[in-house]
């Protein structure tokens, strides 16, 4: 999941609530190796691993990213994510379209980034 989402700046809880409504759901990673649930958790948004196929990189069911995101003028959501298991922070941008998400997570001042595609699980 650490490859899914990444973080840097805090935004208001009302923006987080709006983002949670737009991103809420269960999502399957494009490689078929992870299923996550995105839902509100307090004044933040949480992406929780429901299932991980390959646990060799330390990911496990129940792992969680805690995100603070705000909708941007271009329709994307951006903000930060925190991985409490690894104590890592990431910058994050999520592009949501009908039935699909693309997440872009970055570290080291956005020097290293990774995009991951997700599709909605029905």
Descriptive account of the structure:
The chain contains 1 helix and 8 strands, in the order H-E-E-E-E-E-E-E-E. The longest helix is centred in the N-terminal third of the chain and has 11 residues. By secondary structure, it is mainly beta.
Chart the SSEs and their pairings.
Elements: H1 13-23, E1 25-29, E2 34-41, E3 44-52, E4 64-71, E5 77-83, E6 88-97, E7 100-107, E8 112-120
Antiparallel strand pairs: 1-2, 1-8, 2-3, 3-4, 4-5, 5-6, 6-7, 7-8
Keywords:
1 helix; mainly beta; 122 residues; single chain; disordered N terminus
How many separate helices? Answer: 1
Strand arrangement across the biggest beta sheet:
1-2-3-4-5-6-7-8
Q: Unreliable segments (pLDDT under 50, ≥5 consecutive)? A: 1-15
User: Which sheet architecture does the biggest sheet show?
Assistant: 8 strands, antiparallel, barrel
Short overview:
By secondary structure, the chain is mostly beta strands. The protein is built from 1 helix and 8 strands, in the order H-E-E-E-E-E-E-E-E.
């Amino acid at each position: 999941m650490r490859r899914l989402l990444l973080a840097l700046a805090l935004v208001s809880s009302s923006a987080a609530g709006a983002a949670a409504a737009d991103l809420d759901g269960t999502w399957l990673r494009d490689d078929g190796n992870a299923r996550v649930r995105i839902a509100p958790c307090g004044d933040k948004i949480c992406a929780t691993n429901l299932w991980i196929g390959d646990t060799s990189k330390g990911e496990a069911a129940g792992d969680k990213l805690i995100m603070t995101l705000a909708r941007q003028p271009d329709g994307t959501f951006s903000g930060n994510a925190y991985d409490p298991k690894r104590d890592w922070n990431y910058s994050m941008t999520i592009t949501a379209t009908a039935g699909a998400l693309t997440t872009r997570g970055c570290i080291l001042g956005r020097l290293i980034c990774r995009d991951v595609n997700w599709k909605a699980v029905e």
